[in-house]
User: Which sequence fits this backbone?
């Protein structure tokens, strides 16, 4: 490897790092002030790219020159900034009172809406933007050609860093942003107009996302996959740098850029996993990223199931519901039974997450890891050991439990958003293993031929088996919720110092919660594998984790019935919308946003609150 | 002829009228299920849908098939294996479709093939290119129209031989389609070009190429030939970086699918001239049947056809012919009608080979040129697929049925 090659490769890494930083910087600012994990940040980046790829050529027609180009880039970023304001005023402002995670659900709805809107507005085809006037020709560096636009990009990163630094240090608005990042409640107590501050922050965040996207147009064709491909990396950058820390994000972006540039030389297939490995390693060593600070008011942010005397007649209701569900095969057709089976499986999946989030206050963004491990555990047992279903389901449970024990051991040292991101990293690493280890897992084709034993091969029989297993596990988990163990988890959730002071071994309890939740999700995964007859890496992917989270939040994290209702609602919605229109993402996104606005505590939680208010 | 078909359609209609109380005089349409990645891969699938809609309109205007109109129930397949099989299940059990066709991504195609085998329903994979659909994961219910990776790579390797390049670099998206194409290329180039070696391989994640770093890494290996499998957004990035850095100068480049308008048009005037590609030179094909298709398509949509348009159009006509020959919509009858069946399509004569259910549709191989403000193909030739199909022995070695 000669020196000139190393130098050019390092420059390549710097160029990628710069673009990544500009986008991620907006995410970290927004999180710092509003505590919103903005899933829609990647979508804003995509809108920025599409706007610029349409707007800039139009401006260049009017007057060809560098000025038109750069004006077009800035205008596009401004337009995206305005979209950010709209999102804040129309949506987020209305739900600041709701539990924090709920805003995440709202932004997820925005992601779905923008995915379809972009196709409607800009057309289905990818749009390649024009090259920057004056920067078409490459420059020679050590005898190798290097695009001059990339040099500009490399410079743009530090420039944005400097401007953001000036904004934060030298303006009143910036000082308020910093103050809010440190202690939001105190800023509010001092009489600062919070609404204006939040709107302003969302504008700056969206502007930076739009700028990041717009700057890409000479290198990347604006396309509909951009949103999801950038958002995961942005999360990694902000978390590794420390949430809310702009210099941290810069450092993290630099490291990731170099890691990717040189990583592909050693492992050409590594691009999937290398950033998540980095995040896992950094968080294992520094639990708050490079420059992140522990939450000052740690713990009290968590909202979950409160202690309450059990509702009268709840058991009767549960038995009645179960009996009704068991009668479904008498009336439903084959397809209805299949959908019902899937709903039950996802209900169990979301319910197992409830133990972590609702009881333990441990937000997991990577719950798919355990679902997928369960599915793969069963599928591998069938394929390599020839195990029948009766043995393969326990195998899935064991693999998921072991995985949860291992992942949990790393994860429980962290808290808050860092914990959530560590679970995401773990799930992504498992995803990469399932994807790359083709000889054992079948790569992205997965493993097919995972069918249930003869006695449950019929739709009705399998439905009843799923119902029975789901009911058993849900009841067991409910017992766990109400047990002393469950209460010690709640204690740790509500106040770590007090829980510790009365002698609860918080980490061990939480670790145990991970094992139990993981094993339960594993059963759901196993059941899913047998209902579909196949497994593939998408079961471990981010969308699967997001599904579980969406179902749980939609139903309500403060109730026991929440995840069960949420999974039914989401699955039925998707099932009904997909056949109706090719704009089903738009419909689903609007439905989620609508539900977030109408039911700010989740479906079950809000309805219960209405009832209590009336009483 | 017209008379008998009228009598038959009347008879069918009568049977229905008697069978179902309140049924209309017209016979019930034949329902066919279709699913594809309309939301995620609109660049290919939107023209594809326009293609089969055009064919549907024409077929139904001529009275449909077996005296019944064709009705297509179309769905988004969600671009994931889980969604696709659930949607397929809904089409089969709820809509009662007679057969399924569609899907885009290779891994979804493989999952659909397995589904078809389980539910014993015919599935026609129009687009998925992975060999697995008709080879290792193939089954008697799964058919494929487009030439698979093995065939298209075979056509390109022939050109590689002529180019004289020996040191080859590969860049392919890291998923089923890219991996399988790269594997076939490695095997064929070593078999057919004596002295050829692979000097560099890059597998960027689908939709996430780090183009600058990838181009530098390939350049570093000093190849004299490059085999490209990337498409869509990855391809545009790769081409732009490669053009700026002079990666393609003095090298022979082979590229799968790049000549197809859906991937070529977004490149605008950045078309890498001189690449040897498989594609679709729709504006230069002079066969009257094809010209009629292009004219009808442009008249209806005010848009030039993509390869997807052609594929959607011809697949539906092949389905029509099949149902007509089968004389019914029963799965076994359709399978029988498809066995070694010959079709006269707009792309030329096509045979559905019985041993692996792979059609002999070929591909247009040529060189990329810049024509005005966008790219096109020159020196192209249509290579019929028959000569490039995997041999019977190869098929029998991997297929499980």
Assistant:
């Amino acid at each position: 490897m000669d020196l000139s090659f190393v130098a050019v490769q390092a420059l390549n890494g710097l160029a990628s790092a710069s673009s990544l930083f500009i986008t991620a910087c907006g995410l970290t600012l927004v999180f710092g002030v509003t505590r919103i994990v903005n899933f829609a940040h990647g979508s804003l980046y995509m809108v920025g790219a599409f706007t610029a790829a349409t707007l800039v050529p139009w401006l260049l027609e009017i007057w060809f020159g560098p000025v038109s180009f750069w004006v077009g880039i800035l205008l596009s970023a401004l337009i995206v900034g305005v979209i950010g304001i709209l999102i804040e005023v129309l949506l987020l402002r209305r739900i600041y009172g709701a539990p924090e995670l709920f805003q995440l659900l709202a932004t997820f709805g925005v992601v779905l809406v923008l995915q379809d809107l972009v196709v409607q507005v800009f057309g289905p085809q990818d749009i390649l933007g024009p090259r920057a006037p004056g920067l078409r020709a490459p420059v020679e560096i050590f005898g190798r050609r290097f695009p001059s636009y990339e040099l500009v990009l490399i410079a743009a990163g530090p420039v944005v860093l400097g401007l953001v630094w000036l904004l934060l240090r030298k303006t009143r608005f910036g000082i308020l942003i910093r103050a809010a990042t440190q202690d939001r409640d105190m800023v509010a107590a001092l009489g600062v107009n919070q609404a204006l501050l939040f709107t302003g922050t969302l504008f700056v965040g969206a502007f930076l996302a739009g700028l990041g996207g717009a700057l890409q147009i000479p290198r990347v064709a604006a396309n509909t996959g951009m949103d999801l491909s950038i958002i995961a990396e942005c999360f990694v950058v902000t978390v590794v740098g420390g949430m809310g820390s702009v210099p941290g994000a810069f450092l993290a972006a630099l490291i990731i850029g170099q890691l990717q540039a040189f990583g592909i030389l050693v492992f050409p297939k590594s691009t999937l996993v290398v950033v998540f490995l980095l995040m896992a390693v950094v968080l294992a060593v520094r639990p708050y990223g490079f420059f992140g600070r522990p939450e000052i008011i740690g713990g009290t942010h968590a909202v979950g199931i409160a202690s309450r005397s059990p509702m009268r007649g709840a058991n009767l209701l549960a038995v009645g519901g179960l009996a009704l569900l068991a009668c479904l095969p008498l009336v439903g057709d084959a397809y209805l039974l299949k959908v019902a089976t899937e709903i039950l499986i996802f209900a169990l999946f979301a319910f197992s997450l409830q133990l972590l989030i609702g009881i333990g206050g441990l937000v997991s963004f990577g719950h798919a890891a355990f679902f997928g491990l369960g599915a793969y555990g069963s599928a591998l047992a069938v394929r390599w050991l020839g195990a029948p279903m009766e043995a393969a389901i326990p195998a899935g449970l064991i693999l998921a439990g072991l995985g949860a024990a291992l992942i949990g051991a790393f994860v429980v040292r962290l808290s808050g958003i860092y914990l959530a991101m560590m679970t995401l990293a773990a799930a992504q690493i498992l995803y990469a293993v399932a994807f790359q280890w083709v000889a054992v897992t079948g790569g992205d084709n997965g493993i097919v031929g995972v069918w249930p034993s003869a006695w449950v091969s019929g739709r009705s029989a399998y439905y009843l088996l799923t119902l029975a297993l789901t009911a058993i596990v849900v009841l067991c988990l409910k017992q766990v919720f109400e047990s002393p163990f469950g209460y010690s988890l709640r204690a740790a959730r509500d106040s770590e110092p007090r829980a510790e002071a009365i002698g609860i071994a918080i980490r061990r309890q939480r670790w145990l919660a991970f094992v139990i939740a993981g094993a339960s999700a594993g059963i759901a995964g196993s059941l899913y594998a047998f209902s579909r007859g196949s497994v593939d890496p998408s079961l471990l992917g981010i969308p699967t984790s997001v599904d579980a989270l969406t179902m749980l939040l939609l139903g309500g994290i403060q109730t026991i019935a929440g995840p069960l209702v949420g999974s039914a609602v989401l699955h039925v919605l998707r099932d009904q919308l997909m056949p109706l229109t090719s704009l089903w993402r738009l419909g689903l996104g609007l439905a989620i946003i609508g539900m977030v606005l109408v039911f700010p505590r989740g479906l079950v939680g809000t309805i219960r609150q209405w009832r209590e208010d009336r009483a | 002829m017209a008379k008998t078909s009228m009598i038959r359609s009347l008879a069918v209609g009568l049977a229905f009228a008697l069978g179902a109380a309140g049924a209309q005089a017209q016979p019930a349409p034949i329902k066919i299920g279709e699913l594809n990645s309309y939301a995620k891969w609109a660049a290919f699938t939107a023209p594809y849908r326009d293609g089969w809609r055009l064919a549907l309109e024409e077929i139904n205007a001529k009275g449909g098939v077996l005296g019944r109109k064709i009705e297509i129930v179309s769905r988004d397949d969600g671009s994931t294996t889980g969604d696709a099989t659930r949607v397929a299940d809904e089409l089969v059990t709820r809509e009662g479709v007679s057969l399924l066709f569609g899907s885009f991504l290779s891994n979804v195609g493989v999952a659909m093939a397995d589904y078809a085998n389980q539910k014993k329903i015919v599935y026609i994979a129009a687009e998925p290119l992975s060999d697995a659909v008709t080879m290792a994961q193939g089954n008697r219910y799964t058919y494929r129209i487009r030439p698979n990776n093995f065939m298209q790579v075979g056509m390109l390797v022939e050109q590689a031989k002529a180019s004289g390049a020996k040191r080859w670099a590969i860049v392919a998206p890291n998923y089923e389609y890219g991996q399988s194409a790269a594997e076939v290329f490695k095997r064929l180039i070593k078999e057919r070009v004596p002295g050829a070696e692979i000097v560099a391989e890059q597998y960027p994640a689908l939709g996430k190429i780090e183009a600058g770093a990838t181009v530098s890494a390939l350049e570093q290996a000093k190849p004299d030939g490059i085999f490209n499998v990337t498409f869509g957004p990855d391809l545009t990035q790769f081409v732009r970086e490669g053009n700026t850095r002079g990666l393609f100068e003095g090298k022979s480049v082979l590229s799968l699918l790049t000549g197809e308008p859906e991937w070529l048009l977004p490149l605008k005037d950045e078309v890498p001239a001189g690449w040897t590609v498989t594609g679709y030179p729709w504006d230069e094909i002079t066969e009257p049947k094809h010209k009629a298709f292009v004219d009808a398509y442009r008249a209806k949509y005010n848009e030039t056809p993509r390869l997807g348009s052609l594929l959607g159009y011809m697949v539906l006509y092949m389905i029509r012919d099949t149902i007509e020959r089968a004389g019914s919509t029963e799965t076994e009858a359709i399978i029988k009608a498809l066995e070694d069946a010959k079709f006269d399509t707009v792309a030329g004569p096509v045979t559905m080979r019985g041993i692996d259910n792979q059609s002999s549709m070929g591909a247009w191989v040529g060189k990329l040129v810049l024509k005005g403000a966008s790219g096109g193909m020159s020196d192209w030739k249509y290579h019929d697929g028959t000569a490039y199909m995997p041999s019977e022995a190869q098929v029998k070695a991997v297929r499980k049925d």
About this structure: Chain A has a mean pLDDT of 89.
